[in-house]
């Protein structure tokens, strides 16, 4: 009987020591760890007045002639990321007024996202060697498009690009894919060559 009481007291002592430890803290919410393959770029030499590098991860690239002389739409689809990069090419007429209109339209298009965006970061892009000048926009928050840009040679060519996902904008959910495709948009912008 004495042995039983001793074992019971030891057990109660151990339970009280363990119970007196720090209060248990709940684990933080877990987030999906989404990882994508390293980007592998190749030249997209389409029947349009410019070339650019595209990620081989893109599932499909479509080209459509748009209204007007030498105006094109190029869609670069990423079906596994449920997103598309839309490119719009416009030929600049000899009137420099058209260039200013195109730039204003591109800037206004980006500024329309300020309703939902937390911030819009602008970054100037200049490449004198290839005659490519423009602006990159990183849009933060629940905006419809997280990345946009425009580039031009200031004489004949004007190209805009934007990223859209096939989902309701929820910045936290699409952030990994948006950051991955932001690099692709930058690669497109920085690799543009005019034909």
Automatic annotation (TrEMBL):
Transmembrane segments: none annotated. Keywords: Lipoprotein, Signal. The keyword Lipoprotein applies. Residues 1-21 form the signal peptide. Pfam families: GldD_lipo. This is Gliding motility lipoprotein GldD. It comes from Formosa sediminum.
């Amino acid at each position: 009987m004495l042995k039983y009481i001793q074992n019971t007291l030891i057990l109660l002592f151990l339970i009280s020591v363990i119970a007196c430890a720090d209060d248990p803290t709940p684990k933080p919410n877990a987030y999906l760890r989404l990882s994508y393959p390293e980007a592998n770029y190749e030249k997209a030499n389409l029947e349009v007045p410019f070339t650019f590098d595209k990620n081989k991860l893109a599932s499909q690239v479509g080209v459509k002639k748009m209204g007007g002389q030498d105006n094109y739409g190029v869609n670069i689809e990423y079906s596994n990321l449920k997103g598309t990069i839309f490119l719009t090419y416009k030929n600049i007429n000899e009137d420099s007024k058209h260039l200013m209109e195109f730039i204003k339209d591109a800037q206004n298009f980006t500024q329309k996202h300020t309703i939902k965006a937390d911030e819009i970061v602008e970054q100037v892009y200049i490449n004198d060697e290839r005659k490519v000048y423009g602006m990159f926009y990183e849009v933060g928050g629940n905006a419809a498009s997280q990345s946009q840009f425009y580039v031009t040679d200031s004489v004949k060519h004007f190209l805009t690009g934007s990223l859209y996902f096939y989902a309701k904008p929820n910045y936290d959910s699409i952030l990994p894919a948006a950051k991955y495709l932001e690099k692709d948009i930058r690669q497109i912008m920085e690799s543009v060559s005019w034909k």
